[in-house]
Fold these 2 entries.
Entry 1:
Amino acid sequence: MKAQRVDMFVCPSATPADTSGLQQLADSGKIRPDTLVALVGKTEGTGFHDDWGRVWADVALRDWTARFLGIPVDEVAKQVIFVLSGGCPGVITPHIAAVTREWVDVPDGESRGDKRLVVGRSGSEAIAPEEVGRMGMIRKVAEATHRAMSDAGLTDPKDVHLVMVKVPGLTTASIRDAESRGTTVVSHDLTFGPEGAGVYANDAAALGVAMALGEVPESSLSDDVVRRNWDLYSEVAMTSSGGEKRHGEVVVFGNSSGSQSPLVIGHSVTRDFIDAQGVRDALRSAGIRFQDGLPDEADLDRLIHVFAKSVIPGSDQIRGRHITLLDDADAYQIGKALGGMLVASVTGRTTNYVSGGERNSHQGPPGGNIVAAVVRAD
């Protein structure tokens, strides 16, 4: 029988268009056209809906991938999923993580005693502007998440540790398109502010993941609960949006006893912005050992990558003390930078995928954030 072997390679980026690290992986044979399944990363720029750094990176990466695969650019999305999050404030290093998957022969009936990393991917149906931030997007992301789980060979939601989703945001042009057809949109605010179209898109996508994994029943979902009922959330969804997208793109990471991968993934949640213990719990769940409350330095060499959200809490207090972040005009960037610093303080590295900056989210419990870690197994 066949089993997955998944690997992940992290390439720092000097510019949004820097594909040299990927080319080195290709030249060394670490990635091949038949094994590349996803490119996930952080791009320098504002992180807002009109972040041209992210768009520039997307164009450059699709062009490189098309040449690498030997196919037209418009065919790339059928073979490789792109999840790019813009904005690298503070100590977040711009980077691309290349995810590969190959199928290897395993004798019938043989399986590992432990579970190792598997990956699945799927694209959603086209998401219309009037569906952004609403049930139309929730359902389409949920359907794509189910297909990505099936592609990964996962049936138990408990084995899913991270679902990365990139969905369409709204633009002036897409709003005009919707209204020309007599429909409405969730917001005319093209920012990531509390009522901005960007956060509605991110949160509807997160609720789509929650619906697919049974974290939230479909009966509890409606247009009205998005960014209103914070008791509804996913503990494994990391979502972002961009005006350059027309479809949702989903990548599911989990562990399976049938995998032949050298990697394993784990996750946890932080309870607030200063919860280093939550980051340590994510590393520990993936197999990193600790000494005296700190990661073992030798063991940290097995750490491949960390993915984290950094959502600004809706309260102006943390652990009973007043903070002024909500009054800061640059809170979106500061929030993301704080998350990058929290993760780096534990891992000792800056090539961490940290997405966020929005205020409140259905990605993680109220006030908390999701952290997932990929580690090379012992």
Entry 2:
Amino acid sequence: MKVACAQFAHSGDREGSRDRAIEWMARAADEGADVIVFPELAFDFFFPQVRADARYFDWAEPIPGPTTKRFQEAAARHGLVTVINVFERAGPGRYYDASPVIDADGRLVGVSRMLHIAEEPGYNEKFYYWPGDTGWPVHLTSAGPIGVAICYDRHYPEHFRALALGGAELVVVPTATSTSEQAFRDIWELEIRAAAVANQIFVAVANRAGQDGELQFFGASFVAGPGGEVVARADGDGEQLLVAPVDRDRIEEVRRHVPFLRDLRYDLYGSAPR
């Protein structure tokens, strides 16, 4: 199996960005990818950098909605399991940072909503987003069971553990991480590799690229394997389609030798995540 991380830069308008993203899907399919993941809010200006501007609520859309339906059609056309990220309007006054997961036949398998909501300079997310209410769904796709950790979710080991216990073999991380978050840059690979090895899964991180408003996104997308190894990483902070091999048999191999999940002791330290 191959997974593609689309290190993508917003190109000025939603329609143009979606058109380019669908072109990238064709490229990924040509390179043999089975799964593609796009960064957080890849098709829009990263509006959470603007503090408390209610006009941006007009940008939200339902799931399924115009963006999801376009990518469902493209996923079926190119035979790609596709994970995107949109600003979701779930009901009157209810808004989420959400990732639809689309199977290779175009079927909407499910939606993961960001559970942990940041609030810091450049990331004024608590004004715009409700805390996610989906829990930790594992989406059963033609490329295997996939979990999602959206941006800030990746800092919580419990998130990855819950997905792994739910059967996820690949966790994809759509993110929008910028040079303004130097503390996060310092632990960029460390925490993801730790999550991969602690749960003996693959983790694929797709970060935004380029300058968007006041934020410079640093790219550095990569894929980590179940032994903590880096399978592949992007070259730098520019746009890049990173296509990496994911050998799902490697999970079985690692877990036979180091059975971390078997040896969990929730009887000693509390209940398992649900």
